[in-house]
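Re: How this chain folds, sequence and tokenised backbone to follow

Filed under: protein folding, tokenised backbone structure, sequence and structure records.

Contents: The amino acid chain and a row of whole-number tokens, matched residue for residue.

Body of memo: The sequence and its backbone structure tokens, given next.
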Amino acid sequence: MWFVRVTPLALVPLLVGPAYGVDVTMCGEVVPAGEVGVLQADLTCGPAIMVEEGATLDLNGHMLNMSSGAVGVLCGGDCVVTSSVGTGTIVGPDPGGESCGQLCCGILGYRTTRASNLTISAFSSGILSRRLEAAHVSASNNLRGLEARSALLDNVTANDNSEVGVITEDSPSLIRMTDSTVSGNGGAGITIGGTRGGRLNAVGVTITNNGCVGVVARERKHVRLADSQVTGHAIDLETAKRPQVSDTACGTSSHLTGGGCTVNGPWGVCANDP
């Protein structure tokens, strides 16, 4: 079998060592390299909380309300952003994310960001990172939900974002996704971009009622779907290469169109394809 189901335990970051090394009590604080910072109360912020290399920010079930700031959490290197109690919330200044700028992000990471047990909304990008590993994360009502060069996603929700739910644009573009939902986004549900190779491997994923396209895969990108649903679009699968579909419901497929909602020759893999 070509796919591997990723268990939640493989993705959820574990907090090890002391319960916490840093109490986070105000906006603009820094969690030092290798430390664990724990948010002690809901905060309404302008400046971001900075998480240094190898550090963890535990939202501890609280909310960061970035009503006057463009970034909620800024990761200076590899970092973990999680909530050990319930779900942590990061809310931005711009519902729909259409006017707060390119780097207006719930979490902005420059290397590997590991995120879990979070809800993020009202930014240009819910999470923007070079590499993203996310479990039990909801990114909704942003411009773009989850954005990375490569993404390992389990039990994520990327719904009702103005432009796209999940997107990779750099090279290589890689998404491995399990047990997740991408619905109601204004443009595409998932876009796999970039200029070189890449792939989407999805298992147990529901992609429904987004703009006019469910999945867009640019040149040299492979799409493999198993035990999934991609329905409710003018084009459910728009790919440059023939997608591999197993036990997956889809209505229409199309060769890459370059834009628009008109089928450009079906692949013959979905229910309504000739």
User: Anything to note?
Assistant: The longest helix spans residues 8-11. The longest strand covers residues 105-121. The helical segments are 8-11. Confidence is low (pLDDT under 50) at residues 1-20.
